[in-house]
């Protein structure tokens, strides 16, 4: 059975969480970056996923004061960890 690449699975997960994709910027290059587009916040919430050797790191910034890093994730664990941070970003968008 064909398995989608990680970037496509993340893109699909983002589409399932957000009704207004105009406020989300997804960039896939050597890292996967998810930014909230917010003209009122110069440092809006963001998530960055980096591959470090055979594992991944997930970096989350809430746009105010909280930063979290989840290290040593296997590829299969990324979407589960990402879900928690996408919920936080969704709450941010509901408030702003």
What does this protein structure show overall?
- It is a single chain.
- By secondary structure, the chain is α+β, with helices and mostly antiparallel strands.
- The chain has one domain.
- It has helices at 6-17, 75-95, and strands spanning 24-28, 32-36, 46-52, 55-61, 67-73.
- The chain has a five-stranded antiparallel sheet, covered by helices on one side.
- Helix 1 (6-17) packs parallel to helix 2.
Specify the overall morphology.
globular
Helix content: 25-40%
Whole-number average pLDDT?
Answer: 91
Total E-strand runs: 5
Beta strand %:
25-35%
Number of helices: 2
The radius of gyration computed from the alpha-carbon positions, rounded to a whole number of angstroms, is: 13 Å
Task: Please specify the SSE layout and strand pairing.
Blueprint: H1 6-17, E1 24-28, E2 32-36, E3 46-52, E4 55-61, E5 67-73, H2 75-95
Antiparallel strand pairs: 1-2, 2-3, 3-4, 4-5
């Amino acid at each position: 059975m064909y398995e989608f690449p990680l970037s496509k699975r993340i893109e699909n997960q983002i589409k399932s969480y957000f009704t207004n994709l105009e406020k989300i910027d997804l960039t896939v290059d050597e890292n996967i970056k998810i930014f909230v587009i917010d003209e009122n916040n110069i440092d809006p919430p963001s998530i960055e996923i980096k591959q470090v050797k055979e594992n991944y790191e997930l970096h989350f910034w809430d746009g105010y004061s909280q930063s979290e890093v989840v290290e040593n994730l296997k590829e299969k664990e990324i979407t589960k960890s990402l879900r928690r941070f996408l919920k936080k970003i969704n709450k941010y968008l509901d408030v702003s």
